Amino acid sequence: MVLQANRTRIVTQRITTFDEFRDAVSAYRLPRVLLVALELDLFTTVGDRSWTIPDLAKQLKVSERGLSILCRNLAAVGILQKKGPSYKNSRLGATALNIDHSAYRGGYLNLIKSHWEDWIRLLESVRSGLPIDHDTPDSPDYRRQFTWAMHHRTLEIAPAIAAQIPLAGSQTLLDLGGGPGTYAMAFLAKHPLLRATICDREAAIEVAKEIADTHKARRRLSYLPLDFSNEAIPGTYDVIWYSNVLHIYSPEENQAIFRRVGAALRPGGDSSSKTRFCMIATVCIQ
Asked: Which of 23, 170, 182, 233 is the most buried (most CB within 10 A)?
């Protein structure tokens, strides 16, 4: 079955005039404003108080003129709030963008910043035909940070998806390449009789364990460190969830993975897959 999700994330813009071309090229301005604010730790510095530009500029060690322009733009999109000569955080700025708040999404914010640096190097990749990091192996620290980023990215998405997947009667679920286990925990929260296993690299599983420690369903969660791209999946499961992983592997590699999935899927179970590139649908193969 196919479950419809967010259609608005698909890029459908067509450019047929110079004005449209100009507008598309100029769209970098707001992202740069937002990223510079993050690079300055502006939202953390602002915290829960109001600041005048002279005081905030002194605290951040930047020019008053430059900061004034930056803050006006941030206020224009609502991330800062301006009252008279003073600025304060919006709810978003005070929480998800503030390192001192429990709702801070630092992992994903760091990933966004690194993506900007990567996209600046697109010309290198076009010339070589290779990813810019093709000769750089993942470090455990990178995998840890990336796993936290995926958790921060899916905090709202996972419960919404879990609410649409009918798992009545299922007792076991394998979150294959599950990273932080955000989807697994969303399924557990929705289905109180379900037990889930997160399968991923060791560094990712360590993050999943940290996150699960704060989740009341953690007693129904287990872990399977495994390179499932090369190794058989032990055990059998009613449901195998394969989310935001498909795009990493070649068609041939995915075919091999799905053969392993088939061997680990209990007869009558189903394998669920949602690709990063197709955010409008979650596909369940029965």
From this structure: 182
